[in-house]
Amino acid sequence: MKETRTQVVIVGAGPAGLLLGQLLQSAGVDNVVLERRSREYVEQRVRAGVIEYGVANLIDDAGAGERMRREGLVHHGVEFRFEHHAHRVALSELADGRAITVYGQQEVVKDLIALRLGAGAPLHFDAEVTVVDGLTSDAPFVDVEGADGTTRISCEYVAGCDGSFGVASRSIPTTLHRKYERTYPFSWLGILAEVPPSNEELVYCRHENGFALSSMRSPTLSRLYLGVEPNDTLDEWSDDRIWDELNVRLATEATPAINQGRVVERSITSMRSVVVAPMRHGRLFLAGDAAHIVPPTGAKGMNLALADVRVLAGALLAQLQRKDDTLLAAYSATCLERVWRAEEFSNYMTQMLHPNGDDDFENGVQLARLRQAVNSREASTVLARNYVDLNSL
Ligand code: RFL
Ligand code: PHB
Description:
alpha/beta, binds P-hydroxybenzoic acid, binds 8-demethyl-8-dimethylamino-flavin-adenine-dinucleotide, 6-stranded mixed beta sheet, about 30% strand, about 35% helix, 8-stranded mixed beta sheet
């Protein structure tokens, strides 16, 4: 087996791993990013689209924001539709002028990959980490399987940025961490379609038939979602059925029909909330989806992942450059406070917007929450602040 060494091994080249690599690299800390998938795969994976105000600034500060600022769509409001009427929440007005940026996660990933490869920093695709060990000693290591066999990389710290069900969190003995979990009784069917968005701002919709969301990626590319049954498969949802259902759910008197176009991507995602605590085991630190999952209704997953990395990068630099481990010691508690707030917000958004077929008491409560969210300035303000910049509050 070949052997090498670095200061920090980063498992996973999603937004979390790539941003951590960039922040450490630019501060002069050696690190290696290992990704089990190909470059093409991670650059094409369609996922998140909403970037919080403070997280967009973080991407900028890391030197990766140039294209995001040029091509990203800045939104100052968001719409809620229920009972066939539209209600706008003026995000920026309610959140001290701050706004969200609509820019695809895979574009953030492409920008970070280009930056890293341009700087000649080590980033290996098709390189799967199979073992993470030695975490409670001062000589941790990972084993990675690549095209040229197995390599053992020794390091000072391991960052587990390998997403849900990853090898990093699985290498923590189950008695030493706790997993808090909730599974929701519905999934999201998402499509990407070559058609101008039907609305200037995002639309979150609660209809008797279920949830719908109208989002976008550019002036010519729409991103739309439907809440579906948890066991539904893509075979059951032809393009015609998807468009018909989107039209039924999103219709209001003022906007009776949405723009339709060629569907270029479709997927179904289950909805879960997960928190793994603590987010540390010895010299292993978990960040992003490796430590927590939120249902996508609050648009928080990628934002949380990048906010973890901001804390982790600062803490690793303090330790590696100044031998100060206070921030590393506080890493898990610092992140978990924010993570639970995001879990609460995502849970609130999810439960308010997904009708429950049989339970009319629950449905009444959901509509009361929605009316309060759009009609009470206090409630709209809390929603706007959480939506626009939860991770910096
Ligand atoms: P990722 O992006 O999953 O990256 C983890 C990477 O680790 C690799 N990996 C390994 N590599 C080497 N060795 C191993 N053993 C490995 N095991 C795994 C994987 O291949 C992968 O490349 O995690 P990260 O970086 O923590 O980023 C998290 C985000 O991807 C996620 O939270 C968001 O996409 C969630 N999300 C949203 N977040 C937002 O902030 N705003 C949104 O609007 C939003 N919308 C969404 C979403 C997620 C969705 N889906 C599909 C789950 C909408 C949807 C539909
Ligand atoms: C998206 O554009 O993909 C998107 C937007 C808002 C969400 C989730 C996903 O809450």
